Amino acid sequence: QVQPVESGGGLVQVGGSLRLSCSASGRIFVRNYVAWYRQSPGKEREFVAQRNTGGAFAYADSVKGRFTISRGNAANTAWLHMNSLKPEDTGVYYCRLGDCWGQGTQVTVSS
Fold first, then answer.
1. Distances (CA, A) of 55 to 21, 51, 69, 95, 102
2. Which of 93, 86, 92, 84 is nearest to 66 (CA)?
3. How are beta strands 34-39 and 91-97 bridged, if at all?
């Protein structure tokens, strides 16, 4: 199993954009389930977006049309592009590769 590492979080104003990165050794889009989850203060971890092993994408209704998963310039990187950010998008964002989870990166959206 490959341990993913997230980066790219930070503080952004409402309506702004961020790009989160998930990196791991090897070509992580090959034969890997790639997903992003988030945990907001006082809430359970929730699904945000995924690319399954068949290449199909799925997004939570709350982020559909605003967030996009893509492969980074390097084959060992996956990105989560987040646009039109809202205060309710605040939380710790986790990358999941197969059954392995990263440590998370904090995203804070200020109003």
1. 18, 6, 11, 17, 21
2. 84
3. antiparallel
Model pLDDT, residue 39: 98
The whole-angstrom separation of Cα 106 and Cα 7 is 9
The number of residues making up the chain comes to 111
In the structure, what pLDDT confidence band is assigned to residue 1 with cuts at 50, 70 and 90?
low
Which residue type is seen at 72? G
Mind listing the pLDDT tens digit for each residue in 5-49?
999 999 999 999 999 999 988 777 776 889 999 999 899 999 999
Q: State the chain's maximal CA–CA distance in angstroms.
A: 39
Cα 27–Cα 31–Cα 37 angle in degrees, nearest 5: 85
